[in-house]
Amino acid sequence: MFFDAVVVFAKKDSMDCLFCRIAKREIPADIVFENERVLAFRDIQPQAPVHLLIIPKRHIAGLNDITKADDQLLGEMLNVARELAKKEGVSTDGYRVAINCGANAGQAVAHLHYHVLGGRKFTWPPG
């Protein structure tokens, strides 16, 4: 399965982390937003017409690895999601923000990231 191979590659440290390497510009990406703490780019395997990934530039392996000290960063990432949804033209009709935590939930890269998906109708429950 694709997810298992990527999680093994990404591991929990930042040495080989795919998203850390994108943040350092070692791997190209279609970047749509950047500031000192947050980076957003288009997913290379989009699941909707709009599929963006929002990451902290600092390596955090996943949701289970956040601390109270990350509250401001996580809120900032949600604000970036809202602004990008507006910029991408999906804020009026609706969009989804998702975090996958762990392999069984579909987390493919061990670096915390928000998926911003829009441009089509979604069903519930997901996947």
Could you give a quick summary of the protein structure above?
With 127 residues, this protein is α+β, with helices and mostly antiparallel strands. It has helices at 2-10, 18-23, 71-87; strands at residues 31-34, 38-42, 50-56, 95-98, 114-118.
How would you describe the shape? globular
Helix content: 25-40%
* Low-confidence segments: 1-10
Number of helices: 3
Give me the oligomer status: single chain
Strand order of the largest sheet: 1-2-3-5-4
List the helices and strands and how they pair.
Layout: H1 2-10, H2 18-23, E1 31-34, E2 38-42, E3 50-56, H3 71-87, E4 95-98, E5 114-118
Task: Provide the descriptors you would attach to this structure in a database record.
127 residues; alpha+beta; single chain; 3 helices; HIT family, subunit A; five-stranded antiparallel sheet
Question: Can you describe this structure?
Answer:
- With 127 residues, the protein is of the alpha+beta class.
- The chain has one domain: 2-Layer Sandwich (HIT family, subunit A).
- The chain has helices at 2-10, 18-23, 71-87; strands at 31-34, 38-42, 50-56, 95-98, 114-118.
- The chain has a five-stranded antiparallel beta sheet, covered by helices on one side.
- A hairpin with a 7-residue loop joins strand 2 and strand 3 (50-56).
- The two termini are 16 Å apart.
